[in-house]
Amino acid sequence: MFFQDPKLQYEVTVEQPDPHFAKLLQQAIGGQEGEMRVALQYMFQAWALPEEYEAYRNLLMETAAEELGHIEMLATAVTKNLRDSPKEMGDDAQETAAAASMTGQNPRQFLSAGESAVPVDSNGAPFTGNYIVASGNLAGDLYANVMSEAAGRTLATRLWEYTDDPGMKDMLSYLIARDTMYQNQWLEALESLDDPVPVPASFPQDEENQEVNYTFISTRREEQPNPDHPWTEGEAPDGKGQFSYAADQPGDGNVVAPDPDPMTSDDPNRTDQ
Amino acid sequence: MFFQDPKLQYEVTVEQPDPHFAKLLQQAIGGQEGEMRVALQYMFQAWALPEEYEAYRNLLMETAAEELGHIEMLATAVTKNLRDSPKEMGDDAQETAAAASMTGQNPRQFLSAGESAVPVDSNGAPFTGNYIVASGNLAGDLYANVMSEAAGRTLATRLWEYTDDPGMKDMLSYLIARDTMYQNQWLEALESLDDPVPVPASFPQDEENQEVNYTFISTRREEQPNPDHPWTEGEAPDGKGQFSYAADQPGDGNVVAPDPDPMTSDDPNRTDQ
Amino acid sequence: MFFQDPKLQYEVTVEQPDPHFAKLLQQAIGGQEGEMRVALQYMFQAWALPEEYEAYRNLLMETAAEELGHIEMLATAVTKNLRDSPKEMGDDAQETAAAASMTGQNPRQFLSAGESAVPVDSNGAPFTGNYIVASGNLAGDLYANVMSEAAGRTLATRLWEYTDDPGMKDMLSYLIARDTMYQNQWLEALESLDDPVPVPASFPQDEENQEVNYTFISTRREEQPNPDHPWTEGEAPDGKGQFSYAADQPGDGNVVAPDPDPMTSDDPNRTDQ
Amino acid sequence: MFFQDPKLQYEVTVEQPDPHFAKLLQQAIGGQEGEMRVALQYMFQAWALPEEYEAYRNLLMETAAEELGHIEMLATAVTKNLRDSPKEMGDDAQETAAAASMTGQNPRQFLSAGESAVPVDSNGAPFTGNYIVASGNLAGDLYANVMSEAAGRTLATRLWEYTDDPGMKDMLSYLIARDTMYQNQWLEALESLDDPVPVPASFPQDEENQEVNYTFISTRREEQPNPDHPWTEGEAPDGKGQFSYAADQPGDGNVVAPDPDPMTSDDPNRTDQ
Amino acid sequence: MFFQDPKLQYEVTVEQPDPHFAKLLQQAIGGQEGEMRVALQYMFQAWALPEEYEAYRNLLMETAAEELGHIEMLATAVTKNLRDSPKEMGDDAQETAAAASMTGQNPRQFLSAGESAVPVDSNGAPFTGNYIVASGNLAGDLYANVMSEAAGRTLATRLWEYTDDPGMKDMLSYLIARDTMYQNQWLEALESLDDPVPVPASFPQDEENQEVNYTFISTRREEQPNPDHPWTEGEAPDGKGQFSYAADQPGDGNVVAPDPDPMTSDDPNRTDQ
Amino acid sequence: MFFQDPKLQYEVTVEQPDPHFAKLLQQAIGGQEGEMRVALQYMFQAWALPEEYEAYRNLLMETAAEELGHIEMLATAVTKNLRDSPKEMGDDAQETAAAASMTGQNPRQFLSAGESAVPVDSNGAPFTGNYIVASGNLAGDLYANVMSEAAGRTLATRLWEYTDDPGMKDMLSYLIARDTMYQNQWLEALESLDDPVPVPASFPQDEENQEVNYTFISTRREEQPNPDHPWTEGEAPDGKGQFSYAADQPGDGNVVAPDPDPMTSDDPNRTDQ
User: Fold this and answer.
1) Which domains does chain D have, with CATH numbers?
2) What's the CA gap between D88 and D17, in Å, rounded?
3) How far is CA B150 from the centre of its chain?
4) CA distance D225 to chain A (A)
């Protein structure tokens, strides 16, 4: 159950409004690394957890609600960058020029949304549920969350580089800090799990093929000697096997599809029903 | 540059062909956790890496080529499950019944592909580039790869549970083993990086907001005392901060959008141009 | 800014768990008429409203937060229908049969999510930002909201027809009631606006073509006399014009594209650069 | 059954071709508010209507055919803006500059379509069937149509603001007028229905939860007194209930997923099959 | 400009309504091989053609309008298969069973559309503008049209196999015949073009690399002798070159990305701004 | 089974790096006409072919592997155009200007990928499995391949026009030549098939409607005399019929949907259950 308050989680100011930056901010709203993705991802993950994982479910929901507030901050940043920029639009003498300028921006922010945020990424592609990872396996989900926050923080630091506006830098500095926290909290949660690797831990490992489960198989055209990388020799990180090296793929079995049903195929010899 | 050989990486047999299982296998071909995603993801990651990361680029390309061969194995498994199942189709007396049965399967395998694999997931949704994570940041990408293989192995073990066919169980046992290797190799590669957390390591951490970068901020409606979870106190996994706990969000700034350009807004008071 | 509480907005019980019904419920989660759509739609609409529309912004955010809780209720309904249904899975002797059964359900609920809800619709297609309407024009948005809740209530009543489970019927009875309220509140909000039709009210109506702004233009191949429908004669609902009838389209101007740039076209006469 | 004639419904001229405006016009072709959406939407709605609704089916098909002609007008406007603009392309000395300019436009209009219209929106995202609302419920569909034409007219007026070209302004003035007519005709059609609210009217309203069907439930974190808005007190627009106000959500039932099937879950305690 | 008439192009009858077949028919409506695709494809192609190609533009528009009528026929076939099938729904005693049955069908036909057609394919994935090919190059477009009608006819023959219903067989026999005509008309139009291969004919062929424009380059891991296939020796079909065979790829240049901008990369050595 | 080598198939150089051209190149990577599409398309086609089509399966796989190498070349071209362009980014004094410039480019190349290629098209829309045609019918697939390479070569020649960079022109000259070869090889393969038109050849042609299988049916509003085009008279290209002309559509049967199930419809007369 959710509640809301008409305040931002953290203040958003823009001193030099820049409609171009409003386009870039869309990546953090509706993009692969954006806040819509993580807010919804944490919810779906939480709703799949049974009673014994209550602490983790709470952790996920606590964070999900915060991420919703981050979408709100970013949407506010978009409207401030677009609407407080008087020169971009509406000047009769420059309407065509404004149109030209706008095309390099995000046209739907203007045409579909009246100078406000839209649920798309910085390229203009719509947000999609395909971004959301919620597997019902807690360890796998926590790795997905570390990854999501790594991607989110990388994005936020890049946005921070692309603006000189003190207000935007301050907002991004806040969001970058939160992503530092999130990466750490998901890693800590992973550490609190007993023996999570390889995911899923519940699968009986003796049922997997024992010939290739710790073997680096090279796909180089010309066979190469073992390059002695950390991933071709020595103990594997899961502590359950030793890395080995194979210079060639096993290669077994022909790539031959069975004959299709003659009635639905294009067999030229077929003459009637 | 790529090469190919008309052999499978590992033999694929089906003893009791099952068109229903052919539908489930699509998740491992064109799904969020599937082989198309990882094959392409590793390529795009590799192509972004500069010279100093040659060992990692090679690692990524070695694995990408192997994953292409896994798509091939799974596509072969699909055709064998579909085409060697004589009873499902083509019997004049049962055509309508066959149609009924087919709708519970993946209709496009029949209608669009003549009983073979299609680039979609088990729900029938098309493969999309949205699944691919390739950020130009090696540490972030390696976390994405651990996550992808965790998801892939979880999927493969679930498929293993849903079949009794010895051939399918054998193929999946091979793929599960490879995912064990992959999880380990990406974790090993992460360990070989110097100080990857928080990602991106290149961002000067003193530029991030120092008030909230290790603080668990609760979003519970009613303020709660510190629950003393590993992620609300103690040292953070990155070794660069101490977790703390805040019972409430900072809450600052109003959620008020600026006035839009009057010419593009719906201001009821506007009467003319 | 958002808050949460680990209770459902309204209790969700399932007496006769039905994995098939869990598939149908996905439409109300991630579908065109679903709760993800309205929750996000109301947020994006609210974030575009300037200060003078504070009452409407609050109205939108009040409702958005409630809709988030409805996704939660539906996701809970999905897990209860899937997981409390012991016969469907895991029985060694019936694994293949279970697979067959599962394909008629939503495979990703099992394969991608471990028997829980996924951000897709009842056909398995992913949720998309394309569903969200937030135009920056309040009247237009309120019509979109009436429509969304009409679609949502229609869906909920259909789901109510397709189940006999008392728990599911009770949950749906609650959601149907809320959609009654929502339809009424959005209509009431529309009535509170001054002169909203035609949307957008801010456009000077004398700038629109005065020949065809209240004319029903027939596209019937054979010209027909005025059928004397309410939309071909009499006063228009906006009170600003009289309906008239034209038996044929104006038809003016040729459909001829200009010549393309010869360098990028396929002009067979081009012989060199 | 459809027919066509090689004339435009209304003449399209461009005096000052502007490739940037060609990009913006895409929103009216393949966008959420575009003509492809309404043309197809009205068809699908019509095809679902049984005999007794013949007048409405005709109304829908009359309009659908006209909308097809509007796509044609807009596609013509795109080619005229692109191809009659000699400076943008093909000048050997400025090819790189042209490429730079083009990227701010819609690259696929050039690269995929040889300077003509493409079935995408102004951001370049492809048209999708997800936009189409055709519910089989006439009242709900008519609200969807009012909304679609409100969105379409809002878009057209924004495009009108972004161009100074007399030809484009004239074409848009025509389309804006048609959208005025369409909004009025769909509202008139709604009025001709008996008692359409709440949609669907066919559902027996005493089956919905009687506690909350006219209650405004606040989701504010801190309970607030009744704000005495038109949607928190007084008679509801459907004439079937009185608005009331609840300062808090009912809140009932725990968010606890049942235990998943142990074979498909990640239960760390599981040690074998 | 388009017109319509409230008759079907060809009568549609269903003797044994089958909701399962209604799902399969969706592929011919909203699928990759479907009628929505070709109707829109032919329009966009026509709208890009300049005056000298008037005969081809007319050909395309003549066919586009007919294809719209085919969507109508198929949508009618869907409603007849769904609604004249009394046993599937609404029987109080079998509601849960009906739900079970429905999940193997297309749930959105019921839930979103009240037992009518939806703009999706047989897997339930939405129609997308991505299917549409309209390149501004007539020869390329005609090949796309041959291909589209080949795919469409293949689909229609497969649907013909999956039904025993005389009405459905008759409708499909009509559509298959039309696809025979279409394939022939597009091939005839191709033949009427002067020298269309290789497409685009306008490109000066001496500007393409002359070493590899008629060479079959093998990618086999182990070099193979020339297999003497028709595509490795002899005259090429365009009459402009002789096929040759290369046993290995040229292989030149390293796959090394330049160093990224240090401010946006993850360079571990970067310590400050 | 696939192999790789850390060399490019053909060298890629860029003399005057241009981030705008990097955006255009995306069309050849992740677009409708791009290399991801053909590489995957040829694989899926090959995997569907039974033993008797071994020569064609090999042909498809030989080419698929080469296309993978073309994605690699294009991704390398993207990074070189982006990263060797020092002025675009990182200059503190011009950060806002850089952001402005970047918005006209492909923001995700910067924000999501650290100045490298992304799996999207030139408009920024993600690659999708919807592009892939693999029908299980060899003749249909070969037409799809001719079309795909025609589209690909058209795109490559357009890119060639939009750049002055000698390195880019050289790379594109190579790719254009390969597309010449591909078009020829697929046409040659089509010619090697016995009687492929109309596709699918396996369908007994006497089962199709004999009235309309070689008739051009005009959809012009006003009936026109036979225009005596090559597609309205004379022998059809398949040699199996004579073209004829019909000035009007047959027109038969009403567009009337049956009554829907009263429980799921919006019948205003329904008053109870």
Assistant:
1) 19-192 (1.20.1260.10), 204-249 (no CATH)
2) 10
3) 9
4) 15
CB C24 within 8 A of CB C92: no
- Which DSSP symbol is given to A212? S
Closest chain B CA to residue F128: B128
Q: Are residues D72 and E1, on separate chains, in Cβ contact within 8 Å?
A: yes
Helix (H) or strand (E) holding A242: strand A242-246
Tokens, residue D85: 């603009």
Q: Is the ipTM of this complex over 0.85?
A: yes
| Gyration radius of chain F's alpha carbons | 26
* Residue B115, both tokens: 């009983």
| CB pair distance less than 8 Å for E43 and D72 | yes
| Cβ proximity of F139 and D70 under 8 Å | no
**Measured between alpha carbons, how far is residue E142 from residues C6, E129, E156, F7, F227 in Å?**
60, 18, 21, 37, 20
Contact D129 E115 (CB under 8 A): no
The pTM of this model reads 0.95
Q: Among partner residues D48, D58, D126, which is closest to E114 by beta-carbon distance?
A: D48
Q: Which of A82, A261, A273 to mutate to test the interface with B (most CBs of B within 10 A)?
A: A261
Backbone angles phi, psi at B221, to 5 degrees: -55, -50
Treating both helix axes as pointing N-terminal to C-terminal, what angle do B19-30 and B54-83 enclose, rounded to 10 degrees?
A: 160
Rounded-to-integer distance, Cα C65 and Cα D111, Å: 44
- Which residues in chain D have Cβ-Cβ distances shorter than 8 Å to E117? 44, 47-48
Task: Please give the single-letter amino acid code of residue C117.
Answer: A
- Sequential pLDDT tens for chain A (273 residues): 999 999 999 999 999 999 989 999 999 999 999 999 999 999 999 999 999 999 999 999 999 999 999 999 999 999 999 998 654 444 443 444 455 666 678 899 999 999 999 999 999 999 999 999 999 999 999 999 999 999 999 999 999 999 999 999 999 999 999 999 999 999 999 999 988 999 999 999 999 999 999 999 999 999 999 999 999 999 999 999 999 999 999 998 887 889 886 555 555 444 333
Q: Are C124 and B125 in contact (CB under 8 A)?
A: yes
